[in-house]
Amino acid sequence: MIIVAWNGNRDLSTIFNGNVFKKALSVFITAAILKLGQAILDVILSWKAQRSMLMYVKLGYILKVVSSAAWVIVLSVTYAYTWENPPSFAQTIQSWFGSNKHSPSMFIMAVIVYLSPNTLAAILFMFPLIRIFLRDQIIGLSC
């Protein structure tokens, strides 16, 4: 994923400004919302086939929606803690979950965990020998 941020200033070094960087990191919340929309659309578009689906396939769709919704909540809550003078919505979220001074690092950790499956997929794609080794190990365990 490539993030392009524009602050309206012609100086390119403003991306390293803390406030601009925080605003650019909100793209992960947008990505989580889009994944939630995709999961809901998957359920809607496969609704007619639900009678012929196996139980674990139905469970997979349900877990996809639930995990996507959980990521939207987790990323939104941890992002609300990054603002020093948050808007009223972020203040409401902070009042629900308490206030913590170490929260910006919590948002960064949430983003790292959120991106870890994509990172693993990219590593396995770039190094097919690792993928083949892991596949052989899994097949060896199942025999």
UniProtKB/TrEMBL annotation:
The keyword Flavoprotein does not apply. GO terms for molecular function: glucosyltransferase activity. GO terms for cellular component: plasma membrane. Keywords: Membrane, Transmembrane, Transmembrane helix. Signal peptide: none annotated. The chain crosses the membrane at residues 24-47, 59-81, 106-127. It comes from the Eukaryota. This is Callose synthase 3, variant 2.
